[in-house]
Each structure stands twice: as structure tokens, then as C-alpha cells.
Design brief:
Pfam families: MerR_1. GO terms for molecular function: DNA binding; DNA-binding transcription factor activity. Keywords: DNA-binding. InterPro entries: DNA-bd_dom_put_sf, MerR-type_HTH_dom, MerR_fam. The structure is a single chain. The protein has 299 residues and is mainly α. The chain folds into two domains: 79 residues, Multidrug-efflux Transporter Regulator, Chain: A, Domain 2, CATH 1.10.1660.10; 167 residues, no CATH class. The protein is 66% helix and 1% strand. A two-stranded antiparallel ribbon has the order 1-2. A hairpin with a 2-residue loop joins strand 1 and strand 2. The chain is elongated, with a radius of gyration of 31 Å. The termini are far apart. The C terminus is likely disordered.
Length: 299
């Protein structure tokens, strides 16, 4: 039969079959009456190559597989008997690749569902999970109507948006994220003090930054459940690479030297507590750090 007929029978194109010839996947048929004469064996080989390719194997892996297969004693075409070890390895590798693609598509599906939920709820096309977005909305209502403080809060929200878009925040693991009014008021206090650090007299700046960093770390220890959720939402936080990305984004967001230094100190302190297991189950209810800094903070 002609190559055109072989292409029709196998559901592919003449160009593809010729490509298979070039790649050594399908033997070139003998020439009869001035043209190549394709047989059933060639059709079977083309179908087998396409079937393996659609299963996810690379052409190189298919070529190796076809070489390893024992030939049929009657006509020299490959049999459909048991696969050899090399083929099994390739198939497992292909399965792993497919699983990764499924996981990627699942994540993409979740992001689309989140955007639908965000748009339908009137929050616009935001990548921030609903539970976190609601916390920001509460903070927006609670902070003073000061342009500088409002700008800091907008930067914080934009940072959360970037972390979500960067794939560092896993919104699908948030079952419940809530803060009581006292915790919200304390966060507002931190935002106000953080925004005002730029206006503190030079001779008071060091002490002010130290006290604020200590207060925020002590707050984290008093609200372990929120930090534990934070570590669940950002599962890669324990790795230096993720911490570095977050710090670099924060340094791009904040240009004031004092605010940058305060961010570094607070993150360094938080990482130190995390690395020492301060937020793991079974740690003392009153952590030594908290005990050392709670005397002047009745909250």
C-alpha cells in the first residue's frame, strides 16, 4: 500500500510516518514498481509507536523499547509480550511525569475556582484566599485614617497578593483563619508603630525598633495557632530559599532603612523561634522568650 494509505489507516499524517522513518522508529519498506510498499507490519509498527507516544514516552524511550523487544520469529515485527526492565523504568518515569502534570492542573483548577469565588463575592480578581482577605478588610476598617498608615497596609496586602501569585501561599489548606478583636487591635498597633518608625528621632530609633520587634515576636508566641497556620499556608518557609524570596520581596516593597532593618530583625527572630521548635506541639505554654518580654506588656 502507499504511504498515504498507511497514514489513513493509522490516523496520522504522511509527514509523521516519514519522521518515524528518520528517527528509526519504523523500518523503511521495500520499493516495488517505483514506490515504497507498506504492509500490515508497517501499519502495526506505526500504531504501536503512536500508542506509546500518547502514553507519554519520549521518542528516544520508544526507540530503546522497540530495540529491546524480542522479534517475532515469523515476520520480524515486535510482539506485544512482556516489557523488558528498561521499558518498565521509562514507563514509571512517564507515570511520574503524568502525576506531576495532574498536580499542576489541580492547582490551576483551584486558582480558577478561587478567582470565580473572589469575583462573585465582590472582592474582584484577587489571588488572596477569602479568609486572609477578610482579615485585611478588618484591619482596613480599624486602622486610623492616616495616609502613611493606609499605605503600609496596602503594601502588606500587595505583598500577600504577590506571595499567592508566586505560589508560596497555599490557600487550599486554610480551613479556618480567624483573629479575635484583641489580636486585630494589636496588629493595628504594630502597623501604626511600624509606619511611624520613620519619624522617630535618631537617638530613639534603635530602642524603638528593638522594642517593636520584641513585641511582635512575643505576640507570635501568644498566638501560636496563627503562626502554626502560617507555616501550613507557606509550607516551604523552613527552607532558606523561600525565606530569601520573601525577604527580597519585602526589601523591594519597603525602601526606608529603618523599616527594612525592623523587618530583618523581626524575620530573623521569627525564624530563630521556628527553627528551635517554639511553635511545635509539646513546647512550654510560657516560652522563655515570652517570659522575658511579658513583664512590660500586659496583653
Amino acid at each position: 500500500m502507499k504511504i498515504k494509505d498507511a497514514a489513513e489507516l493509522t490516523g496520522t499524517t504522511v509527514r509523521t510516518i516519514r519522521w518515524y522513518h528518520q528517527e528509526g522508529l519504523v523500518p523503511v519498506p521495500p520499493v516495488h514498481a517505483g514506490r515504497r510498499d507498506y504492509s500490515l507490519e508497517h501499519v502495526a509498527r506505526v500504531l504501536r509507536v503512536r500508542w506509546l507516544a500518547q502514553a507519554g514516552l519520549s521518542l528516544g524511550a520508544i526507540r530503546d523499547l522497540l530495540v529491546e523487544e524480542p522479534p517475532d520469529e515469523d515476520d520480524g515485527t515486535p510482539t506485544s509480550g512482556p516489557e523488558l526492565p528498561g521499558a518498565i523504568h521509562d514507563l514509571y518515569a512517564t507515570l511520574e511525569h503524568i502525576d506531576g502534570a495532574i498536580e499542576h492542573l489541580h492547582g490551576q483548577r483551584e486558582r480558577v475556582l478561587h478567582l470565580i469565588d473572589s469575583a462573585e463575592s465582590g472582592r474582584g480578581l484577587s489571588s488572596i484566599p477569602r479568609e486572609i482577605s477578610e482579615i485585611y478588610e478588618r484591619l482596613e476598617r480599624a486602622v486610623p485614617h492616616d495616609a502613611h498608615i493606609q499605605r503600609v497596609l496596602r503594601r502588606e496586602r500587595r505583598m500577600a497578593e504577590m506571595l499567592c501569585q508566586r505560589g508560596l501561599i497555599k490557600g487550599d489548606v486554610i480551613d479556618a483563619f480567624s483573629m479575635d478583636e484583641e489580636a486585630v487591635e494589636q496588629c493595628v498597633d504594630f502597623l501604626v508603630r511600624f509606619a511611624g518608625i520613620t519619624e522617630v528621632p535618631e537617638d530613639q530609633a534603635e530602642e524603638t525598633m528593638t522594642v517593636l520587634a520584641d513585641d511582635m515576636l512575643a505576640w507570635c508566641l501568644r498566638h501560636r495557632e496563627l503562626v502554626e497556620l502560617y507555616l501550613t499556608v507557606i509550607p516551604g518557609w523552613s527552607t532558606p530559599g523561600i525565606r530569601s524570596v520573601v525577604l527580597r520581596l519585602l526589601m523591594l516593597e519597603y525602601r526606608d532603612p529603618r523599616q527594612r532593618e525592623l523587618i530583618r530583625r523581626t524575620l530573623d527572630g521569627l525564624n530563630h523561634l521556628i527553627d528551635r521548635g517554639a511553635f511545635e506541639q509539646g513546647t512550654p505554654a510560657i516560652h522563655p522568650y515570652l517570659a522575658a518580654h511579658s513583664a512590660g506588656d500586659p496583653s
